[in-house]
Amino acid sequence: MPGCLGHVKVLDFSRVFAGPWAAQMLADFGADVIKVEHVKGGDDVRRMGVPHLGADGEPTGETSSFLAMNRGKRSVGLDLKHPEGQAVARRLIAGADVLIENFKTGNLARFGLDYKAVARINPRLVYCSITGFGQTGPMAHLPGYDPIFQAMSGLMSITGIPEDEPGAGPALVGYSISDITAGQYAVSAILAALNHRDAVSGEGQFIDIALLDTQIHAASHMAMNYLSSGKLPRRNGTASQITCPWQAFDCADRPIMIAIGNDTQFARFADYLGLDGVAEDPRFATNLVRVTNADVLVPMIAARLATKQADACYAELEQIGIPAGPLNSFEDVFAMEQVQARGLLKTLEHPNAGPVRYVANPVRFSKVAAPETRHPPLHAEQTEDVLREIGLSAGEVAALRAAGAVS
Hints:
Blueprint: E1 9-12, H1 18-28, E2 32-37, E3 51-53, E4 59-63, H2 64-69, E5 73-77, H3 83-94, E6 98-101, H4 115-121, E7 126-131, H5 146-152, E8 160-161, E9 169-170, H6 177-201, E10 206-210, H7 211-218, H8 220-229, E11 246-250, E12 255-259, H9 263-273, H10 287-292, H11 294-305, H12 310-319, E13 324-326, H13 330-335, H14 337-341, E14 345-350, E15 354-359, H15 383-389, H16 394-403
Parallel strand pairs: 1-2, 1-6, 2-5, 6-7, 7-10
Antiparallel strand pairs: 3-4, 8-9, 11-12, 12-13, 14-15
Helix pairs in contact: 1-6, 6-7
């Protein structure tokens, strides 16, 4: 099955997380994604994450991070510093719809592979550049990784334990949120640019994505707290700063997450807890006043929930339409009937690692089935196939290998 993007060819010149994540999303939607890697060693993410263990419990040579970011692609080993490698890159670009890269600003211009240069080869190309700080501004030349952008974007100023509690301080979000966020913005932008090309202009264009920009924008509903009131949002543990009650509470055996979304839900919740009259109390009758008086309300709720067993409480709240849920580990997540019913955990065969379980793309289309996915490629696994597709003979590929231009 070709998927929604079976007509689209993507060149993934990116490394590590943000760019490869975007390219993998496009592959999940059916695009033919060619991962262009350095001739020696390939993508740095091949050496990041934890070693992937085989059925015998021994390392397979693959890493969790590479497997998570590169499903559905074909790998070509190419030396972009080599003149013949640059020539091969241009031949690939001539037939591509999309190019994704995350080199430092200006680096690809040294190889004649910047947007201005390659648009002359392929004016229909959508060229997406993902960098830390974007193509402009005084910091455009600087590199950066996810924790830098979590810190600089303000995200860590609102994530962690509040100042007046034990262990107070900022916390890093537990996954590479700035990378994944930038990748998601890149996918949206690429699809928009392809639509504009095909429906309006007939031409591709350059897309400038910055991790700092996208992380700030992704948190804009919290930034608006400051822009609206002049007051800085704060670290608040598991609790919301705009809705109450909306946080984790300790039951007698383990925590439970409660998220009350409106005043009607709160009235049912207060009744469930036996907090007579609380829903009508002027201090708690509406969400805005509950947030203001959370220091009084939350201990009242906590005292009642502390007497209940989490599983029983969760089931009872479900019956009365109160949003709640357990604080799961990933072991718990993949044991959930809901997760299993949605088909989020799948298995593919890998030539080195054998059967590999992975988290499937969550998007479901009504008219187009998800294409069968390829395993995350071995380094340069498809170099021969891809180069033959662009017209090189077996002898020419061998000569390029001998010259060190490809692997």
